[in-house]
Amino acid sequence: MLKEIGSIFSFLTIIPTGSANLETVAKYMYLFPIVGIAIGLLVGSIGFGLSFFLDPLIVSLLVVASLALITGIHHTDGLADFADGLMTKGTKEKKLSAMKDLATGSAGIVAIVLYLVGLIIAFSLSGGFELFLAILLSEIVAKYSMVLMASLGKSASVGSNSPFVELMKNRKKLLVTTTITLIPLIALGGTTGMIIFAAGTTLTLFLLALSTRSFGGITGDILGTANELSRLASVLVFVSL
User: Fold this and answer.
1) Where do the structural domains in the chain lie, given as residue ranges?
2) What is the pTM of this model?
């Protein structure tokens, strides 16, 4: 089991803890929230420490930079591709083609800028232990959103997403990942944690419906989009409560 957990760490971060074999990662996708906990603890600790010495906006910038560094901007790229595909007019096939295009279009650039600016501003509105909680809880929900989407969605095309969608149709796995997610959310966040969970789940279901209508299903880029936007939504809800 430790070897498999190492594989999903390698897949979701730049930390070389194992071979990120796609089939193995897909089989143990339901453990993604554990990686979210680890990332949240690490980056949250950085934000917590820096918040006592630096201006909130600078701390927020460093927190977002840390997240980008640790995750390798892996899923942020998916958000850009999703925006390009979504804004392309025409058939589902044409939209999928635009999403797979290696060149980032104007929609993708705008989406990334808005996402990063929103994340920096949101994180800057909290400090100390509150910032630590915002980072930790949002990262757990972000990873859960990918598992939920893979469990409920269907593949828009054969690709890197296919193993995840096929192997996450086991409802017992979804129950396990939901339990792993809810325990820290409730224990540390209480009512706020439950509201964040509800917000992330609602956003994921909305993205799933939108993707099914626009692309005929989900892709790896759309799973990455769920991760990024659920993180942002969670932080925004946290600082608003």
Assistant:
1) 33-240
2) 0.94
